[in-house]
Amino acid sequence: MQHKNIILIGFMGTGKSAVGKRLASECGMVYTDIDHQITEYENKSIPDIFSLFGEDYFRKVETKVLTDALQNKNQVIATGGGAVLSPHNVQLMMRNGLVIHLKADETTIFERVKSDSARPLLQGDAKEMISKLLAKREGMYDFASQSIETDHRTVDEIVEYITTFISEKK
Ligand code: S3P
Question: Residues lining ligand 1, CB < 6 A?
């Protein structure tokens, strides 16, 4: 039987990729990473797409790749933190999967992303950028069926939390 997609949303550094990979293997589902698909589709890194073509272009590709991915089922999909900015993407995700929100506080996010140069929106003063973006995106992840604090949980604990939530929903 083909299962409904599980779609992970959340701010940068909340663990969507690490959790997504483990959850997919635990549930025997396919792991789909939207950021990775974008880089394959464009044959460029995310920082290069931003610097060469700008954020608006990146968002268009993100919607295209997300739309294509959601044609399939039985996947755990890790989205980019900004996928929720488009109301169209939000509708798509709600129609095509069970949406789970991974959360973390500002300090945790900063600690997780500070040495990573692959996030163009956090270049410069990352602490300040995180704070500004979190404020700007306040409430935008709230459409998820379930929200999980990831700060003091291991990947395994988060995966267990999600699988329990899913089995209780059935
Ligand atoms: C972005 C998050 C990134 C990536 C891009 C933009 C955002 O993904 O899609 O750098 O706007 O929050 P991660 O959430 O996987 O870091």
Answer: 12, 16, 35, 46, 80-82, 119-121
